[in-house]
Each structure stands twice: as C-alpha cells, then as structure tokens.
Specification:
The chain is mostly helical. The protein has helices at about 5-25, 30-40, 50-55, 65-80, 90-100, 115-130, 140-150, 160, 170-175, 180-205, 215-220, 220-235, 245-260, 275-295, 300-305, 320-330, 330-350, 360-370, 380-385, 390-400; strands spanning about 150, 155. A two-stranded antiparallel ribbon has the order 1-2.
C-alpha cells in the first residue's frame, strides 16, 4: 500500500527532491530550492529527513567522485542550516553517523585545495552545529572525525578549527581532563586558533598604511568568526587550571584590549564604509565576550574592568553597549538590566519576518540569552521558530538548555 502524505509533506519532499536532483546534475547548492527550504516553518523541516540522508549518502552520486562530494557538501550545508530543527533521536541516529562517514571522501585531499577546504568546512560545521544534541557516547567518534577533517599531515587550519568551539558542553564536562583525548585536543586547538587569529590581526593592523590596508582588513571576517568562537568557548576554558590554557586566554584578552582601544576613525581616513562596518562587527562580538567574562568569571573580571576601551560616539552595537554597562554598573544590577533589554529586543524581532532580522544582531542577542540564562522564555522560543541563521539557531538552542556558567 502506498504511503499517504499530507499536501504540505508532499510539497516539502518535492522541494527536497528538486534540490537533490539539481545538485546531482552539477549545481553546488541550488539557490531557488534552498532559499525556499529556509522559508519553511520549523515544524515542516522534519519532512526533509530523507533528503538530507540521501544527500549525505550521495545516493544519486554513482561512482563520480566530484558528484559524490557535491551531494555530500550540500547535505552538510542543509544540515548546518536546519539540523537543529530535528529531534535528538534523528540527529544522533541518522545525521551524525552519515556526516562522519562522509568525511572519508575528503580526508585524503589536502585542505590547501579550495574545494577540499570547503568540503571539510561544511562537514565540520554541520557536526559542530548539532553539538547541543549529540550524545555523550558519540563524542569521541565525532571529535576524532572533526580532527581528521581539520588537519592534514599534522597541519591544521584556523578556519577549520574555529567551529570546534560549539562542542563547549563537552569541554565543560571534561575540563579536568588531561592528555591527548579528542575532547582536550579539540578544545586546545580551537583556543589556539582564536589566539593566533587575534594576534595576527593585531600585528597586521598595528602596521597598517594605505598600501597594506587591503590585506589587513581582509582578515577581519575571520577575526569576527574567532570572536564568535571565543564567546562560545569562554565558559569552558575560563575554569581550566592548565597553565598553557590560561596563558592563551590572557593573550586573547590582550589582543581584545588592543582591538577595542582603537578609536572609531582607526585605521585612517582611507578606510571605506564597509570596512568600518566590518571592524565594528569585530568590536561588537569581542566586547560581548569581555562583558560576559566580567559578569561571570572571578578569574578574569578584574582584567576586563581594567581594560582600555575606546569611548564611542553615536550609536552602539549591542556588544559594545553591554561592555559599557558591564564596566560602569554594579554586576547584578547590570545583569538584570541586560536581561530585560535582550527580552525586549527578542520580543521586537519575534514580530518581524525572520529573513529581515540582522544576523549579527540575532547572534549577539542569542549569545547573551544563553550566557545570562534568559533562555526559558517565550521570546526565545518564538524567535527560534523564525530564524534560519546557523549561529543564531545554535545560541538560541543553547539558551533553551540553560546558562553555561554553573
């Protein structure tokens, strides 16, 4: 007897089939079906399970290595965007094993190849995105897989290691662990990547002139990603007693202070508007990390209070505004004020089309909701049903689970 599907389920399945067919025929990630998928209600995402599994297995791939890779890349990308809409059972039983298995098709190709780098990044990021729901008994297999994907012949790349911050819950649970376990190795490599990227940015920007500006500014998107990773990993690394780990955190805070202490006209009149905005994004996310440390870590709160931070003229980003509050207002009073601020902002954003919500804004609000335990609220539940940005989805999912500073 043929399966009976509702009209909505049929339409979603047809959308998934169309995406898979276009990828198999040569398109990297077909814009039309993919964007329509991102517009689906969160409750309808479950009808895409078979499509995601088929893509990750490359069922339409035949023996063509390029086609197999393309299908699996698309499967990882779709998982990264919508995977947290699925139940933990489907994530652990269906998606995680297939994502791990799909790594076999790329680990023999050096990540210096652009195509290999993208393939590795998609698989790492998809597994990292699912981290809030990955079972403890699967962690070693998952983290062994992401380590293999992030490196080649003993060499690792920061952009491939930064997503490993998403496994922060494992780092918190095993913060006393030592040695070369996959969990400890992932934590240390991720933290070192954050340190290295911020240090490189400071070095490049400290010597910047009109001729070197393009190269210096070019690192800022990676610096912003490092800031997001730092914001994620802070609750786990701030409690680690390891001397090397502490030294890395201190160096990261030194770089953060340097980047936050530049005035708004830095690095000069020859900076273009979009470059100023990119630097402002970096200030916002690093300010938020510093503020959360000031609120929640006795070990580093004094360091943040003593930081030199440039005074701002005009409108603040959420992150810079929160750091200003954190340094000027008594701790508990500031936390209560910011919780109310974020609830109000989430309430406003929940009333508009999720596609119109600024991605940086939802990342910053979601992160604060998680760090300051605002998660068990209708505002968070409403917004998470509307947005499809992976970072925002991740933080809001974490927020619903509870704050990380136990």
């Amino acid at each position: 007897m043929a399966a009976s599907f509702s009209l909505q389920e049929q339409q979603v399945r047809q959308l998934g089939n169309r995406l898979e067919s276009k990828v198999a025929k040569g398109e990297e990630l077909p814009r039309d079906p993919f964007e329509k998928i991102l517009q689906l209600p969160r409750s309808d995402m479950r009808y895409l399970k078979d499509t995601i599994c088929s893509l990750l297995e490359a069922r339409l791939g035949g023996g063509d290595h390029a086609r197999i890779n393309r299908l699996q890349d698309a499967g990882a990308a779709v998982t990264r965007y919508v995977g947290l809409s699925f139940s933990p059972e489907i994530i652990n039983q269906e998606f995680v094993p297939r994502l791990i298995a799909s790594s076999d098709s790329v680990i023999d190709t050096a990540p210096e190849s652009f195509a290999s780098r993208i393939s590795r990044y998609e698989r790492i990021s998809a597994l990292a995105q699912l981290a809030p729901h990955i079972r403890e008994d699967s962690l070693d297999d998952v983290m062994t897989a992401v380590l293999e994907l992030a490196g080649h012949n003993g060499e690792f790349h920061p952009d491939l290691l930064l997503p490993l911050a998403n496994f922060e819950r494992a780092y918190r649970r095993h913060y006393r662990a030592e040695g070369e376990s996959p969990v400890v190795r992932c934590r240390d490599l991720c933290l070192e990547s954050v340190r290295a990227v911020l240090a490189t940015a400071v070095e490049a920007l400290a010597e910047v002139d009109q001729d070197s500006l393009a190269d210096a500014i070019g690192i800022l998107p990676l610096v912003h990603t490092s800031g997001v990773s730092l914001l994620t990993i802070l609750p786990s690394v701030s409690r680690v007693d390891d001397v090397d780990c502490k030294a890395k955190v201190e160096e990261i805070l030194d770089s953060t202070e340097w980047l936050l202490s530049r005035n708004e006209k830095f690095p000069g009149n020859y900076v273009q508007r979009d470059e100023v905005e990119m630097y402002d994004r970096v200030r916002g996310i690093l300010s938020l990390s510093a503020a959360m440390l000031s609120f929640r870590s006795d070990a580093y709160s004094d360091v943040v209070q003593r930081m030199k931070v440039a005074k701002r003229e005009g409108q603040h980003r959420l992150g810079t505004a929160i750091l200003t509050i954190a340094r000027a207002v008594e701790r508990e009073e500031a936390i209560d004020y910011i919780r109310d601020l974020v609830r109000e902002q989430l309430r406003i954003d929940a009333s508009v089309d999720g596609r119109l919500i600024n991605k940086d804004s939802i990342v910053e609000m979601g992160a604060v909701a998680w760090h300051l335990d605002v998660g068990n609220s209708p505002e968070v539940r409403e917004v998470i049903n509307r947005i499809r940005d992976p970072r925002g989805q991740f933080y809001l999912t974490k927020a619903l689970e509870g704050a990380p500073w136990g």
